[in-house]
Write a structure and sequence with these properties.
globular, 1% strand, mainly alpha, homotrimer, two-stranded parallel sheet
Chain lengths: 445, 445, 445
């Protein structure tokens, strides 16, 4: 009995172990950036910080009895992963065996932590703390490798991370979810006289939804994400003119996406003509994802609006018709990240290939072209510039597609694999009746 | 029946129509700003963005059963109007048939959308979605014309938009409200055995107020508006010294206004000595409106404090004594925008005339004067400078008053007119019992 | 009766009196900073503004029936004290009998107001409005004197204000609390047939805690403080490289502190293995306080992580074991500011002495040293630099300790003294049953 209590008290002990490992690695391998590195152009760190820690956290408070976990675990996971990402991303960038840390690295770490929070959105209420911890560590490490491949090897353009962050995070999460599902069906007790099962399921159905208040706090997350998305998509721009172009495109895409989301929500919702809060909270943001990989390109203000309108269509229809189908297949996706990050991310990747292919070579090579469109800044993420790149526009388009495919493969593969590992007893998976419930993890008032 | 459902599902179809029109106009008439235009001084875009999308939205969540609409419609209206304003404002500024868009234009579009949100505050819970859509489009278009007249023709000083944004938005809203009221009395059923009427009115009275939780989320809106108001009033300043003067003045005016609001609220509230949340949520912000038109002038830190104290007086007494009188006349004003934006806006306009008249000519002409006061930056909104303007200080004062009068006339006139149009069946006005209720528009948990 | 009502209506009249005094002082003694002063390096004003007005306010909404007071009084106190601090801090810096005000002074006034809000946290629900007003005015004035001594006389390094703001504010508050406690025991009615007493105490115990909703709004305060703490600790840095170092250190310290807080919370909480929201809301922030006095030093990224881990230990154990002991002694500390600001502040002060003592003289004197650690920017708060200071590193360490001791002495002394004054009838102290209850001060729905 006493031992059981001690075990329970130490259930978060792996956190301490991992934190101590981080401590040692930081002591051995990191240093401050010098005065020269500090001058690198950077913007939007604080805004991105708000998106990660307020935006994602509050967006996930829509579940009525999972708000402590949504805000608490979001903070914990992000706090852990930003440290871990500093090491994983810096690993590819070491000088004399040291990783230099400045504001730019902090911003990149924040951005990488978004992948883990997107995955957390898919698994919201479905995974235990230990599972989340393991999944997060694997996801961020593989995510950094994937980003390295996209940016340094394929040299793709993906300034807003629609491929490397949103697509990756969403399909990693769906991979985990698919793997965890196997667990559920395998050892499930025979539902013979399944009164208890039915009852617990009923309760789950009740908990797996919002209250009036929790929807209002969730909107807070939505709106903060909406507000700062232009900063997210433009933070790593190399010049002021590129930065403002990325801001303008993101702003317009979000605006048109929002308008169309409202129209479509009333058109397809369960009660005819009424708006569905799930669409308003999530699909209004799909415009930010969809424009991500092309935000710094010459897609034109009109092009940005068109991109946003398409995003709303994909996202609202996905929530209404696709998510229920996936659930029938056993792939849970609590926040519907497939509709907010996944499909809009793929859409953005495809757009980036299209616009790269259509680019006039002048516009492509010297950024003078005002015509629609041009991939003026290839791989603006980490690379300073590749204007001297002899690639044809068609080649660039091909690389964009290859990077998208690589991302999907790596995300699903490593997601399923870590899900399979995480469903073992070692990671104390949740029972059906423990889902969507803060009671499991928190002292409640 | 089926047709009725289809009609209901398509009730937001006008949104899509308007969004497609916007798409076409953007394709034809807009482009990105070039590298030169991008260098124009600008600050406070993100801060203003938070005010528009979080501040206004959450301030309006004080109604207990209208929080989905407050946050949702705020997002929808603003997302629509920022696109529309980019076109309307850019129309006066076209080069070669094209409107150039940079961060500056986005900030100006955000600011213009505030007029529509102020009007939404007056009509909160009283107007249908279709009515709001129509009203918003008219309001923003006329608002851009009014701003053009004030800034380009009258060349007035109104850096914080107290005349062109706050006064305009408030009286446009009151005009609409007055017009909608006629509707109500006209076809109202004879209240003979008015049990139903009384009951529905009772219910409305119950819904037309806060809950404990909704007041706490409303304070979130208040405080974010309060925090970023200095950025709002200084975003378009031409120099750093002017920007910091505008920040200092706004900061001090808000601070003194807040202190006096608390004192007055306890003095006049219904329960002697207790504070009224309506005053705290709204009147504390009147200092930001009141200092708006003079924020960049040499009014002195002491002057800014005096301006804020006066604003609290106007606003709290307005809420306590004037709003109930207006309601008796049938002019509903749910958020009391007359007391937060309307009268403080007029007060600011009068102050701007006073300070222009009192300006020493040295201070007026060369911004050297440290004495109180001087209108150092005339029409800082859009004009770079008018230091070479041969106007006398008296003339400038006269123009400030003329612009205020023009604004009031245009706002009330176009407000009443669009209200009269919006009350026709075409715009599906609300019935009495549908007011202040999310049930009308949302799938509720 | 009528007179009583009038008295009640005028209970906030002292606010007006004090605001008029401020008005006069501002008219006589303040002016705008000139173009030269405006160029002084400054950052993080808006971020700090969010911390003061949203962060502190919402962190204090965890009490279920004190959210109006938490958000309202936080706004009132801060609005008052930022004006008062501009004068008190400027008093030491006058030129020609005038205080120049620019953005920098506003930031410093915001920072000083934090001391009062920390004290408000200790007294949350325990003090009347009049008491808070009096206490706040004294605290800010003495706080400015203390800061002057630390920075201008001792020339200590305390960029994040861990000594001058956090330690000072916490122990001033505990001093007041200890003094108010005497009051309670003195005139308490004999608990003979104390049914009423027991009942009222029971009710207090019920009010002295969170609801599910209030904990979710409190997390909003936590997270905004967490997000912007790097800006707070780096706002007054003299160079960009120093600023980024302060940001990196604060970011890492907060992150590691958060991870360890979760682990410890489950280990020591009342229900084995469950997380305690009090720890998550507060102890996760202790890393920001702990790194404050050394944030701009060469403590190394690993050093920052170690500092944060220690802060979590001090803070969580303090909440779990020390606060109940203090309460038994009669020292109430509603928000546990001793564990968030007090002990982590002392810890930071001790660290600043340690790192000063360990500094290599090269690193200390010319900021070239990349080795761990060096107090590169002494007294970065107000002084531009003291690189020419002939002090030895040991001397500097001694001054850090002396400043910490001075701060503790001044805080406790003036706190106890103003508590003793504030407990007289004149300041209408609360009765036991009025505690933690908005009913006292607000018209409730």
């Amino acid at each position: 009995m006493l031992e059981k209590i001690t075990m329970s008290r130490l259930r978060y002990a792996p956190l301490l172990v991992f934190q101590v490992i981080l401590l040692i690695l930081f002591f051995c391998f990191t240093t401050y950036a010098d005065a020269e590195e500090v001058k690198q152009r950077i913007s939007g760190f604080e805004d991105t910080h708000v998106m990660i820690f307020i935006g994602f956290a509050y967006l996930m408070t829509f579940l009525k009895k999972y708000c402590y976990s949504a805000t608490g675990y979001n903070l914990l996971l992000a706090a852990l992963i930003i440290q871990w990402s500093l090491l994983c991303q810096g690993f590819f960038d070491m000088k004399d065996g040291k990783i230099s840390i400045s504001l730019r690295q902090l911003l990149e770490a924040d951005i990488m932590s978004a992948t883990v929070l997107i995955t957390f959105g898919a698994l919201l209420g479905l995974a235990s703390g230990t599972q989340l911890l393991f999944i997060a560590i694997v996801e961020a490490a593989v995510g950094c490798v994937n980003l390295y491949i996209s940016e340094e090897i394929y040299k793709i353009s993906d300034i807003g991370g629609s491929i490397g962050i949103h697509t990756y995070g969403a399909y990693f999460g769906l991979g985990v979810s698919a793997a965890l599902r196997l667990k559920k069906s395998d050892p499930e007790p025979a539902p013979s006289n399944g009164v208890a099962t039915i009852q617990s399921q009923k309760e789950n159905i009740r908990l797996d939804g919002p209250s009036y208040t929790s929807d209002v706090t969730a909107m807070l997350g939505t709106i903060f994400l909406w507000i700062y998305w232009p900063s997210f998509n433009s933070g790593l721009a190399a010049t002021e003119v590129e930065r403002q172009r990325a801001i303008v495109n993101t702003y317009l895409s979000l605006a048109s996406c929002t308008v169309v989301t409202f129209m479509l929500s009333a058109a397809v919702s369960h009660k005819p003509g009424k708006l569905d809060m799930v669409h308003i909270q999530n699909s209004t943001l799909a415009g930010g994802v969809a424009v991500g990989a092309v935000a710094n390109m010459y897609i034109g203000p009109g092009g940005a609006i068109a991109v946003g309108m398409g995003a709303a269509l994909i996202s609202v229809l996905g929530y209404r018709y696709l998510t229920p189908q996936l659930e029938k297949l056993g792939v849970q996706d609590t926040c519907g990240v497939n509709n907010l990050h996944g499909m809009p991310g793929i859409y953005s990747g495809l757009l980036s290939a299209l616009f790269a292919a259509l680019a006039t070579s002048e516009a492509y090579h010297n950024e003078l072209g005002n015509v629609f469109p041009a991939t003026s800044s290839i791989a603006a993420g980490h690379l300073a510039s590749s204007t001297a790149d002899p690639r044809s526009t068609g080649m660039q388009a091909a690389y964009q597609l290859i990077a998208l495919a690589t991302t999907l493969g790596l995300a699903l593969g490593s997601g399923i694999l870590s899900g399979l590992i995480a469903k073992t007893k070692l990671f104390s998976p949740l029972e059906e009746k423990q889902r969507y419930d803060d009671e499991m993890n928190w002292e409640l008032p």
